[in-house]
Amino acid sequence: TKSAIFFAVGHAAQKAGTQLIDGIRGMITVSPMIGWGLALGSLAILGMPPFGVFASEFLILTSAMRDHPWATPFLLVGLGVAFAAVFSKVQPMVFGESTAARLPYRPAMVPVFVHLGLVLMLGLWIPPFLADWYRQAARLIG
After folding, report:
1. How far is CA 20 from each of CA 23, 26, 38, 70, 131, rounded to the nearest angstrom?
2. What is the pLDDT at residue 56?
3. Based on the number of CB atoms within 10 Å of its own CB, is 11 exposed (0-12), middle (13-18) or buried (19 or more)?
4. Sequence-separated (6 or more) residues with CB below 8 Å from residue 64
5. Confidence at residue 102, expressed as pLDDT on a 0 to 100 scale
6. pLDDT tens digits for range 83-93
7. What is the C-alpha to C-alpha distance for residues 65 and 1, in angstroms, rounded to an integer?
8. Are 22 and 98 in contact (CB under 8 A)?
9. What is the pTM of this model?
10. What are the sequence ranges of the domains in the chain?
């Protein structure tokens, strides 16, 4: 997931001519592929369904609700603050007003979408050999 964001942000920084978050704006109009890669990568890293990170966040939340119900509100507030903080920075980068010209070429976005596709696949379906490996690891740990 992080690798997809790194690729997308690298393209965005090259186009914007800066690595400062406040200097990167409106990637969806400058290059829709960069914009969508950045938006989807951010949603994936934030743990939104159906991406794979959602399952681990959901398991943590349900375990907290079962074992330590008093901690659940703090966990939910923490997740909400993290989502709001990341989204408040990413939203203008993707959908904000841009002064940059539209890219005259299509950037190489295959790595971004291959990584996002893998994360999406693992969020929807885990191959049997990988599920067995996870079960064996869980048995060793607990």
Report:
1. 5, 14, 15, 39, 40
2. 80
3. buried
4. 71, 72, 75
5. 67
6. 999 999 999 99
7. 27
8. no
9. 0.76
10. 2-141
